[in-house]
Write a structure and sequence with these properties.
By secondary structure, this protein is an alpha/beta fold. It is built from 23 helices and 34 strands. Helices cover 27% and strands 22% of the residues. InterPro entries: Glyco_trans_2-like, Glycosyltransf_2, Nucleotide-diphossugar_trans.
Length: 754
């Protein structure tokens, strides 16, 4: 072999699609390695495959990977191969097996014949004359014997063709320099390789079938999905090259174009010869921004302004709404803004799924209606996904804008890690749409549905990239956020810092300052006029729980409060109360009393205007009382609490959520009851142990019950001593991801109960 051959750089792109598997890929790689003495570089060209296969390939093989994120299939990935500098290029399907030093022979043939542009081998199970065999079970064939037989019969037999099979194309750099890229308008359909071969031939190069070189195909059929574009691609091919098809009013109906054998074939080839740049949709694949919305009409137009201002050119906005009143009067649907109506009361997760189902982009990006976005947000977030550095991007190190007081806040990195799942804002996610499907989608919830789905994608192999979002995104806090917390105090007040108005929002700040101030986020705990709250705890022989319940009470940010403990057990727990705890009152009963009666005793002793249940075995965040009181006062309600509460089961480490149907009469979980003492006076509890809370809610006494959605601030516990058994087999119970639990719902506190 000559020195010039040895010094040639060869790049081999192995095309991997839905029909591929790791076993066939290993065989393709092995026989390439075993049948050449030349240096080469492997690129894995991964098209639309299942995330599990993509993860397995990444974990098994240490090669460069290009992915078909733009969904233009073979043409796009073929062009990715051409973007790499080399002397020769091999584009080969996964599952194609080479033998008998085939690559060495191909390079030598090219070096000796400078007029050859592309070479293709003999093979099996294909449509063209290059296919010498039809194998029903190609994996069972002794193909290495074929290699030797064909080599002996056809070793010096070469035939010039008009087109070569796409499954194995060996191409010279000089030819590529003249014709450029493959035409990506063919997308993932057929005819792209015929088009490319026509252009190579018209550029003055030969297309050679090397009959004496056999490459074995391990699969029997093709991807039937590609047939869907056959007619359209055939017509497009003829529009480019066929005079009769382009000019005749009644063009011939050719099922199969004869190419150079047809007298009308190929005209004006100069205008169709070279494609110097990849198509705009490949450089900038369509991105779908999804916006679930409800009662936010005043925000939507501003959010659309941010959408139109994006420097990323190829994008669409999918808005999913409940009622026409959710939309501003001036909103007009156009070519890149699409409106879809959901059922009234659908969760945010369900709306996100509807948006994804109706999207056309290959990247999904969350576009919440009330946040601020810079003009380069989409570009910054999709770039690493398009470059295959990751599958998901999310923003952190972002600011919080408290609209009610016109304040900007930032939180420390440690606090951010506690607040945000994987330390990224769920509302800022961008991801490869291939990880979403009808079977693998957002949960039907309105809180942390984004984080839950992100973790699901990551379990399926998606890679997350965190991006500094300080000048890309500002999280707007107002009186109607779906995630409610007290900015500046949540989780760790020392982790919050008030900052000056950032320069990036100066052009838009007037919009937010001109908005009518909605209800404040939460009761101001520094206000001495806030109502007094009485927390009531009936208990009996539960020493293992009570100290923690007292600790949760002491950690409350709400200051104007008291705790009344009513104990009718034999193991009195008065010693669990410190001498300095003057706001904790302990009452010991001599005889066993029902839970309903104990609640009545506590309510009668209460000095607070508001009563909150403080069960001894539950977990409450430091902001729990604040949120309860805030809802009660803002909604002018008689009762509030949770109708979608979480429960932790220490024995199994499962976190459950109980979903009470919105269609049924109002209800909140008894452990979360918050109500006015005025209501209790008219409506005391029944003297029973189970169901006293439900009877309190559903009595004939008129009352306004308003559940709130601050579910992450309360967790009930499922254990052997529950007074009211929890039937988790009921369809209303759902297991929730424990990673979310650890970060957002109770954190490490939950596992203290094991």
């Amino acid at each position: 072999m000559t020195t010039s051959v040895i010094n040639q750089k060869i790049v081999i792109g192995i095309y991997i699609d839905a029909l591929s598997n790791v076993k066939d890929l290993f065989k393709t790689l092995f026989f390439i390695s075993d049948n050449t003495s030349l240096e080469y570089e492997i690129i894995l060209l991964i098209d639309s495959i299942k995330p599990e296969l993509k993860r397995e390939i990444r974990n098994t093989f240490d090669f460069k990977i290009k992915t078909g994120i733009n969904l233009h299939g073979r043409t796009s990935l073929f062009n990715c191969l051409l973007d790499i500098a080399a002397d020769y290029y091999l584009f080969v399907d996964c599952g194609m097996l080479v033998g008998s030093k085939a690559l060495d022979q191909l390079v030598e043939l090219m070096e000796k014949n400078r007029d050859i542009g592309i070479i293709g081998p003999s093979t099996n199970n294909s449509w063209s004359q290059q296919s010498l065999y039809k194998d029903a079970q190609p994996e069972s064939v002794n193909w290495l014997e074929r290699v030797e037989e064909i080599k002996q019969v056809n070793s010096l037999n070469f035939q010039e063709l008009d087109s070569l099979l796409e499954s194995f194309l060996f191409i010279r750099k000089n030819a590529i320099e003249i014709v450029g890229y493959a035409d990506e308008k063919y997308a993932d359909g057929y005819y792209w390789e015929v088009d490319y071969c026509v252009r190579i031939k018209k550029a003055g190069f030969k297309l050679i079938w090397a009959k004496g070189i056999y490459v074995h195909r391990l699969f029997a059929g093709d991807d039937n999905n590609r047939n869907k574009t056959s007619v359209a691609n055939s017509n497009y091919f003829k529009e480019k090259f066929c005079v009769k098809f382009k000019l005749d009013s009644n063009p011939p109906n050719c099922d199969c174009c004869k190419g150079f054998l047809c007298e009308s074939f190929v005209v004006d080839i100069k205008n169709n010869l070279k494609i110097s740049e990849r198509t705009e949709s490949v450089k900038f694949p369509l991105v779908s921004c999804i916006m679930p919305t409800k009662n936010r009409a005043h925000f939507i137009l501003q959010s659309i302004n941010y959408f139109h201002a994006q420097d990323y050119p190829n994008k669409e906005l999918i808005i999913v709404y409940d009622a026409i009143t959710d939309l501003p009067d001036k909103l007009i649907e156009n070519k890149n803004i699409h409106l879809f109506k959901s059922e009234d009361g659908d969760s945010i997760g369900k709306k996100r799924n509807m948006a994804c189902e109706n999207s056309s982009g290959i990247i999904i990006i969350h576009w919440d209606d009330d946040d601020w976005y810079s003009a380069n947000r989409i570009s910054r977030q999709v770039q690493p996904i398009l470059e295959n550095d990751c599958d998901i991007t999310g923003l952190n190190n972002t600011l919080f804008y408290l609209n009610t007081s016109n304040e900007f806040w930032k939180c420390s990195e440690d606090l951010s890690k506690k607040m945000l799942v994987e330390n990224v804002h769920g509302g800022s996610l961008a991801y490869n749409k291939s990880f979403w499907s009808k079977a693998n989608n957002y949960p039907d919830t309105s809180l942390r549905e984004d984080a839950d789905f992100m973790l699901k994608m990551m379990r399926n192999g998606a890679r997350l990239r965190r991006i500094d979002g300080k000048e890309l995104f500002i999280y707007l806090r107002h009186g109607n956020n779906s995630w409610t917390f007290n900015t500046g105090l949540f989780l760790d007040p020392s982790g919050w810092e008030k900052v000056d108005t950032p320069d990036c929002i100066l052009e838009d700040i007037a919009f937010y300052r001109s908005m009518p101030k909605e209800k404040k986020e939460i009761c101001n705990t520094r206000n001495q006029n806030i109502p007094k709250v009485t927390c009531i705890m009936p208990t009996a022989d539960r020493r293992e729980f009570v100290p923690r319940a007292i600790e949760h009470y002491k950690n409350q940010l709400y200051k104007n409060k008291e705790l009344i403990i009513i104990d009718d057990g034999t193991d009195k727990i008065e010693d669990a109360i410190s001498k300095g705890d003057n706001d904790i009152k302990y009452v010991s009963l001599e005889k066993t009393t029902s839970i309903g009666e104990k609640r009545n005793i506590a309510c009668a002793l209460a000095s607070g205007e508001i009563i909150i249940h403080w069960d001894d075995d539950d977990w409450m965040s430091p902001s729990w009382i604040q949120y309860q009181v805030n809802t009660l006062l803002e909604e002018n309600a008689d009762v509030t609490g949770l109708d979608q509460p979480f429960f932790f089961q220490p024995k199994t480490a499962n976190l459950w959520q109980y979903n009470y149907p919105k269609s049924e009469r109002p209800w909140v979980h008894g452990g979360t009851l918050c109500y006015t003492k005025k209501l209790w006076r008219r409506n005391p509890f029944k003297a029973i142990n189970i169901g006293e809370d439900a009877r309190f809610l559903w009595s004939n006494c008129p009352k306004k019950i308003v559940p709130h959605n601050n579910v992450e601030h309360y967790v009930g516990f499922i254990h052997d001593k529950n007074v009211s058994p929890k039937n988790t087999k009921d369809s209303r119970w759902h297991v929730i991801d424990n990673e979310i639990t650890m970060r957002n719902v109770g954190g490490a506190h939950l596992f203290q109960f094991k």
